[in-house]
Specification:
Elements (H helix, E strand, L loop, with lengths): L3 H24 L2 E6 L4 H13 L3 E6 L5 H11 L3 E5 L1 H7 L7 E6 L12 E5 L4 H11 L5 E6 L1 H17 L3 E6 L6 H6 L7 E3 L9 H14 L3 E3 L3 H5 L3 E5 L1 H16 L10 E2 L2 E7 H6 L7 H7 L4 E7 L2
Parallel strand pairs: 1-2, 1-3, 3-4, 4-5, 5-11, 6-7, 6-8, 8-9, 9-10
Antiparallel strand pairs: 10-12, 12-13
Helix pairs in contact: 2-10
């Protein structure tokens, strides 16, 4: 006669596993990811987020829907969290009060928020101190930094830049502009008073016309441009300090995991992007006479126009 006890024990174990797996699937938390548009940096950011946060993620792209549809979908799903990717996405969801919200790929998010307890995230802003340190590695003789900003847009960023410059023993000459028309004259006034001009992400100041003017100003006066986007390197800026979208997604995913595991969102402070990509236009460096500090980079570049160096800036 067959012994039924081992078989019964196996069936019992299988049933327990099935029940456990079923509960685990049911317990998987849900996130609605609201994305401003489909562009490569945002796609990289969501990949980084998904690589870290093990939640069920449903995506909504604002450019493909009406804003009212976004709110309606979030209300229908009732997710455990909302992920906002991009400024328009954060603007569309920031009125939600009863669901934790994590944002990323947003410049100067503090200008959009009013101390909401349920919102935190990773800012696209890179620590000004880290940017200036990277600049000084390439141009150690730079002591006077100039920038132009709109006080209605980037005062918060400029205050941090002033503090960082003072910490590093640098002089920061920050001029206020209320219109892009003011920018050229303010820049000309800095001639012979600065060693580097720092382009900050301010849409009042940075326009196609002002960028063209800045490039000419830089070349005519041998004043390097430090900028926030690699696209300006191609136009003639000397150095850019930019974020790594994938790692920013990973950073936001770590933040989301902490919140979903029960840590209060209001205790998880907003963070700056922790990884910085420093890129240098070697041709521009040569035209500006910045040779000695970039000699090793020129040797390693094998004739490439732009070199890149990724730095973790925790």
């Amino acid at each position: 006669m067959l012994n039924k006890k081992p078989l019964s024990r196996k069936l019992f174990v299988i049933l327990i596993l099935l029940v456990f797996c079923s509960h685990a699937a049911e317990a998987r938390q849900e996130i609605v990811a609201v994305q401003s548009v489909r562009v490569e940096p945002y796609e990289e950011a969501i990949k980084g987020f998904k690589s870290t946060c093990d939640a069920q993620i449903q995506s909504i792209v604002i450019s493909e829907r009406r804003e009212a549809d976004v709110a309606r979908e979030i209300n229908r799903v009732k997710p455990d969290m909302v992920l906002a990717i991009g400024r328009d996405a954060l603007s569309a969801v920031k009125k939600i009060k009863n669901i934790p919200i994590v944002y990323l790929m947003v410049l100067n998010p503090q200008t959009m928020l009013s101390g909401e307890n349920n919102i935190t995230g990773v800012s696209m802003n890179i620590s000004p101190e880290k940017q200036l340190k990277a600049l000084l590695q390439a141009v150690p003789q730079a002591k006077r930094i100039g920038l132009v900003y709109d006080p209605n847009r980037t005062t918060y960023l400029v205050k941090k830049a002033q503090h960082a410059a003072a910490t590093l023993g640098l002089t920061l000459m920050a001029k206020k502009a209320s219109s892009s028309k003011d920018v050229p004259s303010l820049i000309v006034d800095m001639k012979e008073k600065i060693d580097v001009f720092w382009m900050v992400p301010d849409i009042t100041v940075i326009t196609p016309d002002t960028v063209e003017f800045l490039i000419l100003f830089s070349m005519e006066n041998n004043i390097p441009l430090l900028t926030f986007s690699e696209k300006y390197l191609e136009l003639g800026a000397f150095m850019s300090t930019t974020i790594d979208p994938f790692d920013m997604g990973v950073q936001a995913g770590e933040m989301a995991n902490n919140i979903l595991r029960g840590k209060s969102g209001e205790r998880i402070q907003q963070a700056h992007a922790r990884t910085m990509i420093v890129s240098t236009n070697l041709m521009v460096a040569g035209k500006l006479g910045i040779h000695s500090n970039l000699a090793s980079a020129l040797e390693k570049s094998r004739g490439e126009k732009i070199i890149r160096n990724t730095q973790t800036i925790n």
